[in-house]
Every structure is written in structure tokens, then in C-alpha cells.
Amino acid sequence: MSDMNVLNVPELDAFPEDISNEFVSEMVTVNDAVRYAASYLIESGVFLGHGTQSCWDEAMYLVMCAINLDPPADAETLETRLTVREKGNIAKLLMSRVRDRIPAAYLTGRAWFSGLEFYVDPRVLIPRSPIAEMIQASFKPYLKHYPRRILDMCTGSGCIAIACADMYRKGTTIDAVDISDDALEVCSINIASYGLEDVVYPYKSDLFSAIPDDERYDLIVCNPPYVDSVDLENMPEEYRHEPRLALEAGDDGLSVVKRLLASASYYMNENSILVCEVGNSRAALEEEFPEVPFHWVTFKNGGEGVFVLTYDELIEFAEIFSVYNRKDEDKTPAEDSGKQEENS
Q1: CA dihedral of residues 73, 79, 80, 81 (deg, nearest 10)
Q2: 115-343 adopts what CATH topology?
Q3: CB–CB of 275/139 below 8 Å?
Q4: What span, in angstroms and rounded, lies between the C-alpha atoms of 130 and 133?
Q5: Which bin fits 70, alpha (ψ -120 to 50), beta or left (φ > 0)?
Q6: What is the pTM (predicted TM-score) of this model?
Q7: Which of 74, 278, 312, 318 is the most exposed place for a label (fewest CB within 10 A)?
């Protein structure tokens, strides 16, 4: 090889293992901190999947939360000077994010969904569902009427239930159901922070097992566990800080969804809809139920794997779903229609 083809590429210095001294001594403004943090996160190879789309956004989120402000920063805030204490706190968050791969929302206890802020900790998933876009659009064009009763199944932090309460303010009540006591504690914190104790009701149940038989909803929204066994074992480290109960859904990712499909129609009014997220398990769902016309939602702001089924469609395919019904293997939605009429 000719000497002309040998490049003398310099070896660039990496970030120090402990960035505290460098960060505190050299950063001056918020903009300095965000720029440094973004470079640090990029070099460290953190995985983004909990609400931010770039390392710049993740850096902005961490820096602003560390100084008790809401992200993102405006131009004026970016030029403000940081105190030594603030710089030290930012450095601590950044190192924990990189060294321990803890998602930013768990480090700060703050997450946003559908334009609303929520408290989160490792007892619940970090809100990130594309269903937020559907809520902001009042579930149009799928939902044809104003919902008086809504069920948020697998509520977690309560973000979907509370966002629905913010959208539907005229007499709508919402049940926020989860099997996890820990999740319901976080949900209750968020309900109280918005003063919605008389609107959103946290409810412990394994899907519909503890819901009264005569209960009927105009809208059921569910973001259940849907991670299959292969994806679960190969998840980036950041996801391993989230509750396994809220992720794991058997070999095909459908263990919860199949039970949901088998029982949901018993608890729905006519003209109601079921909205459910299955993420990467969409292919498995379509393979399991090739006859079912799942309506897959197209999102403008990104995201996929959310389907809609109407009450009538759930009734039409009830026999196919019924094999997965634990609550009452002998009862069918058609047989139950008389009780629904009596309660309407």
C-alpha cells in the first residue's frame, strides 16, 4: 500500500468516566449544558424509546428538569447562567442515565402525555403511546358519539384515563383499571394532582374479572402488555427498569390481548368501540385472527400497532374469541344482549 493511502487519523479524547468536574468548571449557560449533554449521550450510545426522538431532546429534557423548569427551553432561557449546584445536579443525572441506563423520566419523575404532565416511577411504564393522538382527535372518525362512560384498561400511570378526562369534560366518568397495586398507587397520585377524584376512579382488576357484570362502557381503551418472549429477552437495557408485568405477554405477545378480545363486548354499549395497542405484535395478532377486520390506525405523529374494533365486530367474531374467555366460558355476548337492553 502506498504511503499516499495511509491516513493519519487522530484519536479523539473520550468523555471522562466522571464528568462532574469538567461539567461544573466549563459549562456556563443552559445552552452549554444541553450541547454537552447531547454529545455525551450520543457518545455513550444510550437507547431512546421513552418519549424523546433524539439525544438533543433527551439532553434538553434532563437539563430542564434538573433546574425545575419545563422542557423545551426558549431562546432566552438557553442563554441563562447555571449555578454550581445546578451544574452538579445535571451532571449527576447525566451520569446515571449513561452508567445505569435509567430512563430519563424515572430519573426526574416527570413525563408528558397528550400535553399533560404525569408523575412516574419504576412502578409504571413511562407514557409514550401513540393513542395520545387519538385522544386529542376525540377518537374520530371511529367514535361516533360523546362517551359518558370510559374504561382505561391496564391504566398504569393513569395517563390515558386522565387525558380522556381532560378531553371529555361534560359528565364523563372513567374507570382506570389495573392488576397492579403499585401501578394504581401511581395512578392515584396523578388523579389527585389534577383534582379528578370524582371523575377518574382507580380500580383493581385482572382485566374484567372484578368489574360488575352489569357495567357498560361507551369507549374502552387498552394499552396492555404486548411484548413477546423474544423481544423481551432482547430489549435494550433501558426497558429493563420498567415493570416486567406491564411488558410481558407470552410467546406471541398476545396473552392479554386475546383475553381482552374475548370479554370486552360483554361490557360495551351498542355503537361503542375498543381501542387497543399491540405494537410489534400486530403480525402475530393478524396471523391468529385472519378473519377479523382490525382497523389499524395511521398516526400523523408517528407510532403504529393500534387497532380499533366496534361492538358489532366483536359480536360478529365472538365465537372465534370465546376460546380465550376465562370469566364465563358458557356465556356469549349474543346471549347477554337481553341484560344489556334491561340496563340501557
Answers
A1: 120
A2: Rossmann fold (3.40.50)
A3: yes
A4: 6
A5: beta
A6: 0.90
A7: 74
